[in-house]
Write a structure and sequence with these properties.
The complex is a heterodimer of chains A (about 110) and B (about 120).
Chain A: E1 4-7, E2 10-13, E3 19-25, E4 33-38, E5 45-49, E6 53-54, E7 62-67, E8 70-75, E9 85-90, E10 103-107
Parallel strand pairs in A: 2-10
Antiparallel strand pairs in A: 1-3, 3-8, 4-5, 4-9, 5-6, 7-8, 9-10
Chain B: E1 3-7, E2 10-12, E3 18-25, E4 34-39, E5 45-51, E6 58-60, E7 68-73, E8 78-83, E9 92-99, E10 107-110, E11 114-118
Parallel strand pairs in B: 2-11
Antiparallel strand pairs in B: 1-3, 3-8, 4-5, 4-9, 5-6, 7-8, 9-10, 9-11
Amino acid sequence: EIVLTQSPATLSLSPGERATLSCRASQSISSYLAWYQQKPGQAPRLLIYDASNRATGIPARFSGSGSGTDFTLAISSLEPEDFAVYFCQHRANWPPLTFGGGTKVEIK
Amino acid sequence: EVQLMESGGGLVKPGGSLRLSCAASGFTFSSYNMNWIRQAPGKGLEWVSSISSDTTYIYYADSMKGRFTISRDNAKNSLYLQMNSLRAEDTAVYYCVRDSYTSLAVFDYWGQGTLVTVSS
């Protein structure tokens, strides 16, 4: 099973600041990584797939990078609606599919 | 507009059974692989099961194998999850989730979820 480790667990930032979230895989997953955003009481929403491709309707301030075992989700300038929990998920050598434990981006 | 509407959640005793349903609309259901993903209260996301568009493949997480059964009815645009021998640790919101058409196991649409509570 591929384990995804997200860091930090919590990121405290102010609106307008840049956010950088990390996801590390326990073995190489090529570029088969997705990122999801989840707000309280809502279902997750797909942001990025295959490491760097923005999903339909996702603003350009969200970007993904990385390959192999180390991946990054960046939010260039935080908007009030971006404060949420972010999960990474792989789709390499499955089943099983697994998710990271999440990073909460909170208002400082 | 793509819509996924789960139903069937509720309170069940340990060892009991429950059948979840997901009604899909706004897309050609029979062309998409589908999934169930769950989230325990205050916890992260856990993949439960996947089924291909034509049921050629069906996969389960190890902890659900032998207890859960995923199925679909393409004529009724519906996805199902039969859950037996339920345990307290199965308590979670269960999401019905669509695969992206172009990328296997990329989850592009999620339902709002149905809460399953396993407690005596």
